[in-house]
# Entry
Amino acid sequence: MAQEQCFSSQKSEACSLILQAGAIGEGGEIFILKMGIPVRISDMARDMISMSGFRPGEEIEIRYSGLRPGEKLYEELITEGEEIRKTGHEDIMVLATDGHRSMDEMNRHLDRLAELGRAGDGAGIKEYLRVVVPEYCPETDFSTPHHQRFPNDKQRLSG
# Structure
């Protein structure tokens, strides 16, 4: 029962923060929410199996599939050159960016990418994505297995 209350409390906290961020927002902001204690996916899976009346690992198997191409082990909330600013709520911050892009500007970028795609210009797409998304790294080769591209992730996964 305690696990069920904890899980429910975390969902309630997340929903509340999202609604409050929506009320604070003026349009186009990116909010970063302090959600409390991080929860491991494997722990959440075990809790959900137990709350459903089954025994994890016995009646329902938990299988680790590893990362698929393009998946991340850790999500970066803030990239280089960005900073966060406080809001009126202690658990809600807003990302301070170098300015919001207008919908017209975004549509121009999408149109250009579509043109390059129709032309079959993969190199042009990668180059243009570098202009639009400075953090984009086209050098990543997803045909190489994840454990060869990121050998240190294996150590982090075992924790």
Remarks:
- The chain has six helices and three strands.
- The first helix runs from residue 2 to 24.
- The radius of gyration is 21 Å.
- The beta strands are 31-33, 83-86, 92-96.
